[in-house]
Amino acid sequence: MIGKLIVSGFQDLLNLFYPNPCLLCQDSLQQSEEIICTACRLQLPETGQHRGEALIDGQTKFAGKVPVEFVYAYLYFTKRGKTQRLIHALKYRGNKEVGNLLGRWYGNQLKTDIHLNDHIDLIVGVPLHPAKLRQRGYNQSDWIAQGLSQALDIPWSDRILTRNRNTISQTGKDRMGRWENVSNVFQISDPDLVTNKRILLVDDVLTTGATLEACTAALLASNSQSVGIITAAATR
Length: 236
Prior knowledge:
The chain folds into two domains: 1-43, no CATH class; 45-235, Rossmann fold (3-Layer(aba) Sandwich), CATH 3.40.50.2020. The chain is 38% helix and 16% strand. The chain has eight helices and seven strands; from the N terminus they run H-H-E-H-H-E-H-H-E-E-H-E-E-H-E. The chain has helices spanning 2-17, 38-42, 82-92, 97-114, 130-136, 140-152, 175-182, 210-221, and strands spanning 71-77, 122-125, 156-157, 161-163, 186-188, 198-206, 226-235. Helix 7 (175-182) runs parallel beside helix 8. The chain is globular and about 50 Å long.
């Protein structure tokens, strides 16, 4: 007991002189907080999509293209909003732990609200080309997938779904342009690992859905039983 009090007091002293700021508001984090303070977390624009509360319907993006079991997004993405700041920190500023945190937060909701852990066998993130992976140093989708894996207690892999061509950025492209950019880009390293498996496919942001469509097509062509999609964010 005394030892815990000493550790707690030392941590409080460290926070006084070397405050650990919230990524969004820059206020000092409390000892129980991680990356984002409680006040900012409560202000995050959650979609509630898995509970049927969302105004967006991601499945319409895939209708008539590839069959998906579900499409859920954790947060709404708006320009200059809190979600954009989190995604940019994750993708462009080296804050990969943001992905793990968002994955854990959403995974806990999915486990509690709809028992998603009973309906998934394997989690995979949308892969980066090896050249982009070397440049960035990590795959942001894999960090989200790891967080979901921890919360849902479902295995994940970063080696099954691979990208065989280094495409140009999707930013600024319309849906057709994005599809042409990613068609025939993804492949399965070992089809036996996904055969008859219920796959959860994970990405950072859902926009047109072209990349996720291409990944889903590759998984289903390798005899996956089903594919569901989760993203950390989605445009309205």
